[in-house]
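Reopening: structure tokens for the aspartic acid complex, inputs below.
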Amino acid sequence: MRISEPRPEPLLAIHGGAGAIARERLDDGGARAALRAALDAGYGVLAEGGAAVDAVVRAVASLEACGLFNAGKGAVRASDGSVSLDAAVMDGRQRAAGAVAALAGFPGAIEIARRVMEATPHVLLAGPGAEAFAEAQGFGRVPPAFFVAPLPGAALATSDAHREGGGGAEDGPASGSELGTVGAVARDRNGGLAAATTTGGIRGKLPGRVGDSPLVGAGTWADERCAVSATGLGEALIRSVFGFRLASWQAQGMALAEAATRALADAASLGGRSGCVAVSALGEITLMFDTAGMFRGFVDAGGRRRIAIGPDDESD
Ligand code: ASP
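Re-run output (same inputs, fresh job):
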């Protein structure tokens, strides 16, 4: 129905991870403020007529940099105590994509992923190759202590609660004040769609483990009809090809929310609870999860901003 819009209004949705949300986090002013700041950063781009891909990178970079989420400072540790990040960005107009996986020693992973998209013929760089690329591109390396320095208000890992049956017992050494994976999807004034996602992965992961976030079609997907960013147990999201299948169901005529419900159910059938944000070219916007909560927010076609953490709360 919105297909007849004379000029598409911008849309933006973000998440900061799905999982079991500790009661005190439901009123977490810090997390809400960080979500608000990320929405404002991303929506500012769209309001000025900027591209969806610029908006999602800006929003995700804001969440990465705030230090509260599992996406930069505050990322979870692997079983050997190391920290590495996965990130991807996808521009739906050309289905251009860039990603980094198992990237150690660099914060700001989404900007590095974007550089992969723009400055190389490749889609995904991993491990030492990704780090050498980041260095050559002028991104600043940080010492391991950067990621694990304790932060005030610490220690909820939404990542621990994705497995069916509840919380993980695989806690590594205490990390920063991690919330969850971060992601964004947007539609710009030209109808262009984009998605971006960054994560430190799951706590206690084996070194070298790569999750769904940097994998095109799994945790991150955008084409000309639909953009998706997922959060949850990466192994289930990869096996369900979460983002691509959600988009395919939407392209076949399913409402976006229905497609998201079906995608979540499929990931759950593979043992992982998850969440996602998605927008469609038709103007649909969906923020959905089958966990206890998801840090999330959106700006709708009327420019109305909303933030939520638990299942029922909503603030602006
Ligand atoms: N999907 C992420 C991963 O498995 C984790 C998360 O969303 O919390 O790497």
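The longest strand covers residues 11-19. Helices lie at 29-47, 52-65, 109-119, 127-136, 145-148, 234-239, 242-251, 256-269. Marking as resolved unless the reporter disagrees.
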